[in-house]
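A student in our group prepared the protein record below, which I am reviewing. What it holds is a sequence and that sequence's fold in token form. My question to you is simply how this chain folds and whether the tokens agree. Do not assume that whoever made the record got everything right. I have pasted the whole thing underneath without changing anything:
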Amino acid sequence: MACRLADSMFLFMGPHQKPSGSHKILAHCSPGICYLKAERVIQKGIRHEQFLLPKRKSRVIQAVAIPVVPSPADTAEYRKQLAESYGFKQIGEPLPDNIKIKDIINTLPKKVFEIDDVKAWKSVLISVTSYALGLLMISKAPWFLLPLAWAWTGTAATGFFVIGHDCAHKAFSSNKLVEDIVGTLAFLPLIYPYEPWRFKHDQHHAKTNMLSEDTAWHPVWKEEFDSSPILRKAITIGYGPLRPWMSIAHWLMWHFNLNKFRPSELKRVKISLACVFSFIAIGWPLIIYKTGIMGWVKFWLMPWLGYHFWMSVFTMVHHTAPHIPFKYSNEWNAAQAQLNGTIHCDYPRWVEILCHDISVHIPHHISPRIPSYNLRAAHKSLQENWGKYLNEATWNWRLMKTILTECHVYDQEQNYVPFDKLAPEESQPITFLRKAMPDYA
């Protein structure tokens, strides 16, 4: 039986017999009772008056053991209630501190790390074909069906990103040059510079859910929120109703500023930027020449916004929930951040096919070297060996509502504080979302 002894120890010793730094407390526990033996020992560097106290004086003290009640957060029932209220299928138990990433990797089958060229190029074929089909749908669809065509084409374009994503993690081909070429080409329709993204994304994996270090999204700082009314309004809108497109702001802020990269990275960064600007300089005028400005909106801009919807949603859902903390580096634990701090979410199957299972995200954070076509097998292994620690959900309204209305400003104790608790009169967008968004799970 676990015992709380420190608080009750002095009760039995009396006011003049508290153990100081020169006492040694020995404990022997039997069911319901602990026997403490206080021995006075000589401490180095401290002069003791031998005529006042015997050299060794000991007494046996009987203390009643007090059972330790588990914290509510540690109980299965509490986690079940939390999962239901947040829109999750399961909220995992906290991972023990002594578990290392290598312990988890060692439980994965070796075959999930194997690169299969046929499967890799099959994913390219799926993305090219589905994207071409989307463009055909846009060209043929009446105006009232265009949103469906844009949704399909934007989702197909997200598949290009996932292919480049595999290339960046050396999970597409055993040939590095092939990966660099394919990754750069896959990112061009998205006007995403491949190398700048790769460098920053590697940091996201190395520092997942680490405050100030993770290059993906993290909570808003209170100092930032309080800095000015204009910025506060912009943040409230951006992290509220516009959050499903916030990846556009992230794309602009992180990937085009040369000052954000080390000197050793600049050559590759500049090559990627040159490729992107060349695509814009050649591709956009060609689209406008063939289809006009409205054609550029129909065939490129709207699918691009559809891609950023998925880019933002996947990023949000993978690492954002009220119970998942962001931590400073001195408190951060890699295994906890990657296994406990990453969320598996099931989407409609057509989305998962077009996006090459990027939503099967926990194994990708355990080891980014796992190719996208092996993520499901890796996740199955994690469920078998580490299932009770996993956070799992099915994409639903309640899940999105929780993220958009609750996960805002960083707080060390609560993880997040909603905008409307800090500035209720200036948080109308959040109030609107609370009222307007459905609560179906």
In short: The beta strands are 23-30, 33-40, 58-64, 88-90, 343-346, 391-394, 409-411, 415-417. The first strand starts at residue 23 and ends at 30. The first helix runs from residue 6 to 13. The chain has 18 helices and eight strands.
